[in-house]
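[audit] Reproducing an earlier prediction to check determinism. Same input, same settings, fresh worker. If the tokens differ from the archived copy the diff job will pick it up downstream; this log only records the rerun itself.
[audit] input (149 residues):
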Amino acid sequence: MATQEQLRQTVRTLLDSQAQGVLATQHDRQPYTSLMAFAVTPDLHWIVFATYRATQKHANLLANPRASLLIDNRTNESADYHDTVATSAQGTVSEVDLTRRGELLQLYLEKHPDLSDFVSATDCVLLKLEVESFYVVSQFQNVAVLQMF
């Protein structure tokens, strides 16, 4: 059984190595998923991503800010069943406020410099998932939970 510190390092390594994850929101009790570029703060408390305001995912988050972001390192090979590590970050999403916008935008653009025009658009919003927990799955069925609070 991994310690919380070992689990934290596993999550940190996974999130640093991956550029995209799958955001799950809901609309009328129906799940809705979106592929999202993301960045994570050094303390793992916030995952930052961006979207246009006129999207279904943004409307879903306004109606219900609870969300989950799945990040994994699969390679689409048969070894994935034993070698893949996946984490589901669960928490509440909100718009990044002006006091943290510069810092979190810089963090996002350091990881995704090609998305500069996208996040600079007037109808694009920078969001943060305040992570309550990471559910980490490894070796196909080993599940551990890293609580952030």
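[audit] rerun output stored. Observation attached for the diff report: The chain has a mean pLDDT of 96.
[audit] end
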